[in-house]
Amino acid sequence: MTRNPESGGARRRFATAGFAALGAVLLSSGIAAAEPTQEEARERYERLQEELSELNETYNQAQEDHEAAQAELDDIEDRLTEAQEELDAMAGKVAGIARVAYTDSPYSTFTVLFGGAPDSALQNVADLDHLSEGQQDVLAGYIEEVEGSERLHDEAAEVEEDAAEALESAEAAQARGEEALDEQAEVLESLGGVDPTSVGTADSGGTAAVAASGDVRAVLDFARAQIGKPYVWGGTGPNGYDCSGLVQAAWRQAGVNLPRTTYDQVNAGTRVSRDQVQPGDLLFFYSESAPSHVGIYSGNGMMIHGSNPSKPLEEVSLAAYWDGVFTAAVRVG
After folding, report:
1. Distance between CA 172 and CA 193 in Å, rounded?
2. Residues taking part in catalysis
3. Strand locations in the chain, DSSP E?
């Protein structure tokens, strides 16, 4: 069923007025809205964290779609240029054939070529019995080029529209993300500045005790060197990263080219269980089939990741929060 935007807007206006009236009643009666409890604030902060992860990967996917559409559009435009050059090269020969064909015809060359749709007019010429086989081949080729050019123009218009829609989706996701960040900052203040997604301690031994060599060591060394850099929407480095951008860049140090988004990275290796993870494995969160967050397991119950733009890249414990939203682990290679 198609929603009526006007009625939806009316309902929103009615709801807004209703909330305002309710607030006035509460204030006049001396009843104030209750402050959220610490538990409620913590849950709200965590829900916003998940939303921010989803918005970032929506942004990434939209950017990927936009770039793909732009590349396709560039290719179509190159093909259009080639098609136009071919048409220009054939135009003189086609006009000559048309003049000869209609010397004794009641129709002028202008009418044949331009009185209706070009492909229809030229088809009329090509269908004349007295044209030589060679002339008919030339006209048929020209008609095919005209029709191909028209298809390319239509295709270009569709791809250009797709690119614009993808860019709009990316911008909308980022705008909503900025709103969620502001709200999360307010909630964090009510929690005394203690981020519930960053609390917890590492398993005994500390990160220095993690044994890794070769490719995994290169991955971890790179990832750890990025700690403290800013989290950037769609960031792929070197000055800032988002979660999947950091994972992609880290594994590139080992010669592995991972996909750009978490949606694809979760399928870029062998699944392993949580109790079998090893340093360098990718950890995914919130959804098993379409996870919106990823980190690199660094050993001892820790991971290196980018959480959201409110804080830099960090190494955090999986305990207390992240293990509760863990959904999949992937071993690359």
Report:
1. 28
2. 243, 293, 305
3. 270-272, 282-285, 293-299, 302-305, 314-317, 326-331
What values do phi and psi take at 314, rounded to 5?
Answer: -150, 165
Q: Which of 139, 141, 150, 138 is nearest to 79 (CA)?
A: 150
pTM above 0.85, yes or no: no
pLDDT tens for the chain, 333 residues long, are: 433 433 333 333 333 334 344 344 444 445 555 677 888 888 999 999 999 999 999 998 888 888 888 888 888 888 778 777 776 776 666 666 666 555 544 444 444 444 445 555 544 544 444 455 666 566 666 777 677 778 878 888 888 888 888 889 889 988 999 999 999 999 998 888 888 888 765 553 344 445 566 899 999 999 999 999 999 999 999 999 999 999 999 999 999 999 999 999 999 999 999 999 999 999 999 998 899 999 999 999 999 999 999 999 999 999 889 999 999 999 997
